[in-house]
Design the sequence.
């Protein structure tokens, strides 16, 4: 009779990259996701985005928009979710430190988004076993138009990371 393996004996299937595994110039893309009316209503209601641009299609049309306009905040959140679903940071991410964000074009219900992630800086932090990684994340629609760009700076575990003693 064999005994059940312990958690330390069973390999982890999903593991994010260490900062050393995120060299400058590394690039990948995420899966795609279509934005639904439900996504819009849930986000606007949850976040309190009661701006008529997002609730009133005729008001948005008066502004020159051609569909159910999606807030830039929702576009960012969906893109960040797509990045996290790649598992690139699974278990290795330590902190989200900073970000710059630019909305490049409108996003509408029915658009299908994906993100292209490029590492633009990767360096050791001031503490051992950690690194600071900056990325440029280009969010694109189904026509490959760039609709939003953000540049997160994250603290990421290194190969020699040791959890602090408690």
Sequence:
């Amino acid at each position: 009779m064999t005994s059940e393996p312990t958690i330390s004996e069973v390999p982890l299937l999903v593991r994010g990259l260490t900062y050393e595994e995120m060299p400058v110039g590394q690039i990948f893309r995420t899966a795609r996701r279509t934005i639904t009316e439900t996504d819009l209503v849930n986000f606007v209601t949850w976040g309190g985005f009661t701006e008529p641009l997002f609730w009133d299609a005729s008001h948005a049309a008066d502004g020159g928009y051609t569909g159910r306009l999606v807030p830039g905040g929702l576009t960012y959140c969906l893109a960040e979710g797509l990045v996290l679903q790649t598992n690139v940071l699974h278990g290795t991410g330590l902190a989200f430190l900073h970000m710059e964000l630019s909305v490049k074009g409108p996003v509408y219900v029915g658009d299908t988004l994906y993100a292209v992630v490029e590492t633009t800086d990767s360096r050791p932090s001031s503490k051992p076993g950690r690194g600071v990684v900056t990325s440029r994340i280009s969010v694109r629609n189904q026509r490959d138009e760039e609709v939003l760009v953000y540049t997160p700076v994250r603290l990421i575990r290194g190969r020699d990371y040791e959890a602090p003693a408690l």
The first strand starts at residue 27 and ends at 29. The chain is about 20% helix and 30% strand.
